[in-house]
Amino acid sequence: MAPNIKIALDDLTVNNLGVLRRINSVVLPTSYSDSWYKDSLSVGELAKLAYFNDIPVGAIRCSLETPPSHKDQTRIYIMTLAVLSPYRGYGIGRKLVDHILEQAKKMFVKEVYCHVWVENDDALTWYQHIGFEKGELVTGYYKKMTPAGDAYILRKAIE
Amino acid sequence: MSAAAVPKARYLPPKEAGSFRQVLQLYETRQYKKALKVADTILTKFPDHGETLAMKGLILCFSEKKEEGHELIKKGLRNDLTSFICWHVYGLFYRSERNFEEASKCYVHALKYAPDNTNILRDLSLLQCQMRNWEGLITSRKTILSQKPNVRQHWTGLALGYHMMKNYELAENILSKYEETLKEPPKEDYEHSELLLYKNMIIYESGNVARALEHLESIADQVTDKLSVMESRAKYLLELERLPEATVAYRKLLNRNPDNKEYFFGIERALGVQDDVEKRKTLYRALAKQYKHSDAAKSIPLSFLSGEDFRQAVKSYIVDFLTKGVPSAFVNLKPLYDDEAKVKGIEDVVLEFLKTLSHAGNGVNGVGQNGSAKEKDNSPTTYLWTIYYLAQHYSKIGQPDLACEYITKAIEHTPTLVEVHMAKAKILKRKGDHVAASEAMTRARELDLQDRFVNTKAAKYLMRAGKSDEAVSVVSLFTKNDAHGKGVGDLHEMQALWFLTEQGEMFNRLGKIGLALKRFDAVKKIYDDWWGDQFDFHQYCVRRGTMRAYLGLLRWEETLYTENFYTRAAFDAIQTYISLYDTPKSARVAAELEGLTEEERKKAMRKAKRERAKQNKHSESEKIGGTDDDPLGKNMENTSTPLEDAEQFWKPVAACATWDQSWTWGEEIAKRKEQEAARVKLDTADKTT
Ligand SMILES: CC(C)(COP(=O)(O)OP(=O)(O)OC[C@H]1O[C@@H](n2cnc3c(N)ncnc32)[C@H](O)[C@@H]1OP(=O)(O)O)[C@@H](O)C(=O)NCCC(=O)NCCS
Q1: Which of B416, B452, B478 to mutate to test the interface with A (most CBs of A within 10 A)?
Q2: Which of A7, A34, A85, A92 to mutate to test the interface with B (most CBs of B within 10 A)?
Q3: H-state helical runs in B168-242
Q4: Residue B620 confidence class, pLDDT cut points 50, 70, 90
């Protein structure tokens, strides 16, 4: 491994919210609203920034989904996960997801899941590589795309 | 004083005389309300009693009723011109106004009527320090010392006078005499130790280095500041050319602190290698080995090496920085940029290094087939810091387009790094594109809202771009804000020179002359405050015996008004006043209206009126709260004495020993004043004929 590499996670705060914005806007095709970013401050440990040698280069932002019915289980949904391209392959994505899985455990949440665009082969392989299972196809999930894009659900059950 | 000597107007019957003493006591203990009451009881019977009037006035001045107080003080003095109390009070008044010159005149008067009054003598001596009236200081200090020879500060105070008059012998003698008065010198005593070092400084400044060294050795055991003994010893030995001993002395210093460049230069000279590049090279190679963590040992050789030697040295120096990710690499190397050959050497080295890096930009994709980056031999940040360096490099050597190219790559690579956005802003600023520069700086700020440094820069760049209100909002995130949520008042209070200067210059560009002058004046006031603030130290330092620190302060004050921030604001102000003089308002209007038809003229007038209204509509952020009755500086702009106003800014600069003779503002003002005088003479001649 290249020498002297230090990777660490830190909290999202009102002062570094601009970093989440910047990372998402350069890595992800979808754009998010101001209120979405503001809400990111209220999800606690479910939003994190990742640092490579003290430079912020990755971010994850999830939400806790409490279903309307008691019978359905509470789940954690990964809304965005992004690592700046020069910093990929250093275990940063995994570290961010691992952090969420740990939170899930602590919160007795049984499942973490996300949507991935069917054409995004890299992400599909990646999620499976780190232990997620490919689930059902949701047609027309990406409504803003023309034509509307389909997505797979990727999920990981928590023991 | 005997009762017989009391003039009739001053005489008070015993009861009132007692009351008056009470007033003095209450004043001393700051019980102003009570003091006023007692003073009034005296005045009901003796309404013209000068000393009581003066005391009442003084107390009113300290109770926020300055004008009324001032009147009473003057009245009191008029009623009793030979009273030392009245003169002393008047002096205290001027002193509180920081009008030191008038104050000292009053004290001199007071002393005429009470030549031995220690309080007045002491007060006067402080003013003499403030005014740098060393001859006067010697006289008053001599009297004080003869009255109280058992107090150390009176001896040091007198020695100071002689020292400043460059009478080193007497200065030293005075301190020796003081030492003789001590039965046993105090041990481990900081104040005594400072006194000994002060004496050593006097001996050294007298030019007799050998004796200074001898004296230093004789006091070394008693001095608590060991480092300063070591530094002086090394310096003296070197000056005396006792080189082997000097070498040892500098070695010892380096062992304590291998980052002090002065020590390195000292050892070079002690070894006699300072003029021989080869020997210097060998020396620094050894030093760098010995002091592995010393930056100085590695960076000093960069200044004297050349050719291949330089290339090798700078290569290992830079590559180390770039791989470690030290953001300040460029700042450390900037001093070398005066030398073209070195600049070329640095450029080659960095470009070569860049080629060795694997990164997305040169076709070698960072992530391997299986997505792992682990086998890569360099971190992506090395590439990042390298192109960041090149961007700064090309901006510095006047190639803004290349600089932009590199910084754009750096931002694409890591858009979350504050430094790259700041660098982009700086590059654009150098190109003169202030709006884009400020946008880049804002992008830097958004990444870390709690970084005060970036916040300050962002505000500064907004002002450069003429965005007055936005700048104030940004900078106010870090200030105590007024009712409107703005921090301009606080920035005045915190003496934020950078802000006042930038805002002043911005107002100037926006044509808001009054506000601009207002800010330049605020800068001047801060410097005047600093000049005035030393007053407290004349007493404090001499009493505490911290003479070396005190002399440092005095010498710093001598150069105060040639500091960049002062001269920048002052020259801005002078220039503004001069152009107000050169084109007075009426002339400006007349010039615009010349040659127009009646209709056009009316139109132009209407337009001018609208413009004025626009300019007068000032946003909240421009005003500062408080009791200022001219918050927009209108009075300054409409001054009838622009040249005199300009002169106020110039005088303190010209009074500094360090002023740069290439500054021509003094002449510019003088030239115009002569013209003005000639014109006035002509006018009066016209009228009389
Ligand atoms: C997906 C993404 C977050 C991965 O981040 P990352 O930091 O590069 O991933 P990691 O380094 O943690 O990779 C973990 C493991 O996956 C492997 N891997 C990385 N990229 C891979 C890929 N494209 N295909 C298969 N495996 C991959 C790594 O080799 C590593 O394996 P190991 O731990 O067994 O050695 C990042 O590539 C990204 O931001 N992509 C674009 C945005 C996106 O698609 N987000 C997902 C949709 S929300």
Answers
A1: B416
A2: A85
A3: 168-181, 190-205, 209-219, 226-239
A4: low
Q: Which two tokens stand for residue B668?
A: 């510019």
Residue of B398, B430, B395, A88 lying closest to B407 (CA atoms): B395
Span B46-58, pLDDT tens digits: 999 999 999 999 9
Q: What is the DSSP letter of B560?
A: G
Q: How many CB atoms lie within 10 A of CB B427?
A: 26
ipTM: 0.95
**Which residues have CB under 8 Å from B92's CB, separation 6+?**
B58, B103, B123
Q: State the amino acid at position B72 in one-letter form.
A: L
CA–CA distance, A60 with A80 (Å, rounded to integer)? 6
> Nearest C-alpha of chain B: how many angstroms from A89?
4
Bridge partners (DSSP) of residue A113 are A77, A155
Q: Report the chain A residue with the minimal C-alpha distance to residue B377.
A: A2
Give the whole-angstrom CA distance, residue B218 versus residue A41: 67
Alpha carbon distances (Å) from B428 to B19, B242, B433, B451: 73, 54, 5, 22
Are B81 and B73 within 8 A, CB to CB? no
* Distances, alpha carbon B315 to alpha carbons B319, B328, B347, B348, B390, in Å: 6, 16, 10, 9, 14
Ligand 1 test: best mutation among A9, A24, A80, A129, most atoms within 8 Å of CB? Answer: A129
In this predicted model, what pLDDT tens digit does every residue of A25-78 receive, in sequence order?
Answer: 999 988 999 999 999 999 999 999 999 999 999 999 999 998 888 778 899 999
Position B84 confidence tier, pLDDT thresholds 50, 70, 90: very high
Quick check: B367 and A1 CB within 8 A? no
Identify the CA nearest to B441 among candidates B452, B426, B430. B426
Residue type, B597: T
Give B655's contacts (C-beta < 8 A, 6+ positions apart). B561
Residues of A with catalytic function: 77, 115
Nearest CA in chain A to B417: A55
Chain A nearest-CA residue for B445: A18
Question: Letter for the amino acid at B462?
Answer: L
**β-strand pairing of A47-52 with A7-11:** antiparallel
- The answer for residues whose C-beta is within 8 angstroms of residue B56's C-beta and 6 or more apart is B36, B39, B40, B43, B69, B72, B76
Q: Strands, DSSP E only, in B95-204?
A: none
Which helix (H) or strand (E) covers residue A78, if one does? strand A75-83
Q: Which one of B414, B446, B449 has the shortest CB-CB distance to A86?
A: B414
Strand order in the sheet with A133-142: A7-11, A47-52, A55-65, A75-83, A111-117, A149-157, A133-142
Question: Measuring CA to CA, which residue among B253, B239, B166 is closest to residue B205?
Answer: B166
- Model's pTM, two decimal places? 0.86
Q: Is B376 on the interface with A (CB under 8 A)?
A: yes
Our CA angle for B543, B545, B551, nearest 5°, is 105
The reply to whether omega before B13 is within 30° of 0 (cis) is: no
pLDDT of residue A66: 84
Instruction: Determine the Cα–Cα distance for residues B596 and B602; give it in Å rounded to an integer.
Output: 9
Burial class (CB in 10 A: 0-12, 13-18, 19+), B283: buried
Distance from Cα B378 to the centre of ligand 1, integer Å? 19
pLDDT in tens, A7-36: 999 999 999 999 999 999 999 988 999 999
Instruction: Provide the Cα torsion B420, B421, B423, B428; round to 10°.
Output: 140
Q: At what angle do helices B468-475 and B497-509 cross, to 10 degrees?
A: 170
